[in-house]
Amino acid sequence: MILTTLLIGALLVGALITFIVLGFTHFVPWLFVLATIGMVAWANFRDKRKFLVWKDEYSVGIEAIDRDHKKLLNLINQFQTAVLYRTGREFEQEAFDSLVEYTRTHFRREEDLMEEHGYPDFEPHREQHRQMIAQVEACMAQYMSEGRQVPLERAVSFLQDWLINHINGTDQQYSEFLISKGVH
Ligand SMILES: [Fe+2]
Ligand SMILES: [Fe+2]
Question: Between 82 and which of 30, 31, 95, 171 could a Cys-Cys bridge form, CB atoms 3.0 to 4.6 Å apart?
Answer without folding.
Answer: 95
